[in-house]
Amino acid sequence: MTTADLTAKSISELKTEIKRRERQLTSLHKKREKVVAQLQEIDDQISELGGTASGASPIGGGRKRYRNDANLADSLVDLLKTKVMSVTQASIEVQKAGYKTTSPNFRTIVNQTLLRDKRFKRVGRGLYTSGKATAMKKKTTKKRPAKRNTRRSKK
Fold this sequence. Notes:
α4 (about 85-95) packs across α5. Among the domains are: about 10-50; about 70-130, no CATH class. It is about 45% helix and about 5% strand. It has helices at about 5, 10-50, 70-80, 85-95, 105-115; strands at about 85, 120-125, 125-130. By secondary structure, the protein is mainly α. It has five helices and three strands. The radius of gyration is 34 Å and the shape is elongated. The protein has a three-stranded antiparallel β-sheet with strand order 1-3-2.
């Protein structure tokens, strides 16, 4: 029944309709529980065979995100305390240190974190640190010899 159909009904007819819908809702909940139990059994069988259930499971929700002990910025601070690294090196090393991510653009995220957070210091082009580490020796420019006067003086 639509809302327009209900406006013309009496109170007793509306109460009857509410009871009918509640029974239908209870029935649907029971059906859903049975189907979810069947899906769980199928997922268990797939797991026993070494596979993973594809797609989002209606039981647990959508895609799972990793939970790290520390946020990315804190993990990078620990990593760069005594080192100077490029963005690419830092993104690889922080993952080796245990930071988990599923991002296909993780290097970009690391770069944004290094630029935004005031705890990081840029010590060279693409090189960052969080501690007192400094970049390798700066290249010293060689002094050019003074230009010789190549014009010959007229005598």
